[in-house]
Write a structure and sequence with these properties.
It comes from Granulicatella elegans ATCC 700633. The protein is an alpha+beta fold. The chain has 2 domains: 2-19 and 232-418, Enolpyruvate transferase domain (UDP-n-acetylglucosamine1-carboxyvinyl-transferase, Chain), CATH 3.65.10.10; 22-229, UDP-n-acetylglucosamine1-carboxyvinyl-transferase, Chain. Helices cover 30% and strands 26% of the residues. The chain has a 4-stranded mixed β-sheet, covered by helices on one side. A 4-stranded mixed β-sheet has the order 2-14-16-15. The longest helix has 14 residues, at 234-247. Bound molecules: uridine-diphosphate-2(N-acetylglucosaminyl) butyric acid (EPU). Uridine-diphosphate-2(N-acetylglucosaminyl) butyric acid is lined by residues 23, 26, 92-93, 116, 120-126, 162, 164-167, 188, 235, 305-306, 328-329, 371-372, 399.
């Protein structure tokens, strides 16, 4: 089993460059299969979720090459193969093959998705959208069976009952080749949705309104190949900003679109973190005398749920009682008991996280329950005195590209080891 070992308390300095966004990439890859020619994605992060998607593509007989962040996807000979189980269940985003295979073949069988356990993660809105477009959808033995029964999909008006990134993208993928116009109302507005729409439009789709809550899609007959550069990962950027504020002695985070993390930057400023925001990078000065703040996660452009866990260790450096309410995933609290083992004073009551600070942290053995909880433990390990050993790091490697090398380059004492 791989583990991360961190000898904490080292001040970090220097630069770190953010990779392409995981949550864009995992949607852009399934989107690319809709083309009849190769699609080239640039800035693809080197993470386990991408490796898993490449294996799934290979099972669909889609040829890929992946070198230096450039992923070429050639779906020319793709086959309609049922995937009720196996690799497809290892990650959340494999659900995008539902919308994509429905649009490409008029059918698909996709195992129900796995991914991080953050409490209930229903996909009712995805299914509502597919059905509204005219698909038959059955949930049998842990897999979703989709078919248009040879009739194709027809555009319609779809109101999303909850603001969902996944459902918005999945319905977009299905609707892009439907007959006529589809209107998605109460659509999610995350930057990753704009990125997916930019790719689809480069491929020849006709989609308007991405980034607003109403997206209009005029179906087209065919999509062609193109080249597309993925947006920077706002969650990875936020994680390194939190690291920089927690243990930095002057750190620059490069390749950031600051507008994508305004919710986080506002809270860091409120805490007293001194930052200089440039066009594409953010410098974080050494931080002390931080103040506790209250955070409520919301759909974009609110404070991202994915940054709630990575900012928690920083709150342990702040004076006072901080509160976090995650309205997207109220049960996303598994990092708290692990951080408490390291000496944090965290409580969860009625889905409200309270952190009392400042508290010194001490290294110990902890386990990552999910991707962003793992990021929180890495940050806590960097802050702590002594040695922190983190297990279940597969979660972390699913989403953070070259995290060990990046932190070593900043001066951290961190290593990946094999241990039973
Ligand atoms: N929801 C429903 N029904 C649905 C879909 C969602 O009730 O059909 C609810 C969810 O339970 C949740 C809310 O709507 O309360 C938002 O969920 P959303 O569908 O937006 O989440 P997702 O698409 O499954 C993506 C990211 C997550 C991120 C969320 C929220 C990917 C692959 N995953 O998940 O990222 O937390 O949006 O922004 O894009 C992560 O990167 O660590 C991660 C978990």
């Amino acid at each position: 089993m791989r583990k991360l070992v961190i000898n904490g308390g080292k001040p970090l300095t220097g630069e770190v460059t953010i990779s392409g966004a995981k949550n864009s990439t995992v949607a852009l890859i399934p989107a690319a299969i809709l083309a009849s020619e190769p699609v080239v994605l640039e800035g693809v992060p080197d993470i386990q979720d991408v490796a898993a998607l490449i294996e799934i593509l290979s099972d669909f007989n889609v040829h890929t090459t992946f070198e230096e962040g450039v992923l070429t996807i050639d779906p020319t000979n793709m086959l309609s193969i049922p995937m009720p189980s196996g690799k497809i269940q290892s990650m959340r985003a494999s659900y995008y093959f539902m919308g994509a295979t429905l649009a490409k073949f008029g059918e698909g069988v996709v195992g129900l998705p796995g991914g991080c356990f953050l409490g209930p993660r229903p996909i009712d809105q995805h299914i509502k959208g597919f059905k509204a477009l005219g698909a038959d959808v059955r949930n049998e033995m842990g897999a979703i069976y989709l078919s248009t029964n040879g009739q194709g999909l027809t555009g319609t008006r779809i109101y999303m009952d909850v603001v969902s990134v996944g459902a918005t993208i999945n319905v977009l993928l299905a609707a892009v080749r439907a007959k006529g116009k589809t209107i998605i109302e109460n659509a999610a507005r995350e930057p990753e949705i704009i990125d997916v729409v930019n790719l689809l439009n480069k491929m020849g789709a006709n989609i308007k309104g991405a980034g607003t809550s109403v997206i209009r899609i005029e179906g087209v007959d065919e999509l062609h190949g193109c080249r597309h550069t993925i947006i920077p990962d706002r969650i990875e950027a936020g994680t390194y900003l939190s690291i920089a504020a927690a243990v930095g002695e002057g750190v620059t985070v490069k390749n950031v679109i600051f507008e994508h993390i305004e919710g986080l930057l506002a809270k860091m400023e409120e805490m007293g973190v001194k930052m200089t925001i440039g066009e594409e990078d953010i410098y974080v000065a050494p931080s002390k005398d931080l103040k506790a703040v209250s955070i409520k996660t919301l759909p974009y452009p609110g404070f991202a749920t994915d940054l709630q866990q990575p900012i928690t260790p920083l709150l342990m450096k702040a004076t006072g009682e901080a509160k976090i309410i995650d309205t997207i995933y109220p049960k996303r609290v598994n990092h708290i008991p692990e951080l408490n083992r390291m000496g944090a004073l965290g409580r969860v009551e009625n889905d409200v996280i309270s952190i009392t600070g400042p508290t010194p942290l001490t290294g110990c053995e902890v386990a990552a329950s999910d991707l962003r909880a793992g990021a929180a433990l890495v940050i806590a390990g960097l802050m702590a005195q002594g040695t922190t050993k983190i297990s279940n790091i597969e979660h972390i490697l699913r989403g953070y590209s070259h995290i060990v090398e990046n932190l070593q380059q900043l001066g951290a004492d961190i290593q990946m080891i094999e241990e039973d």
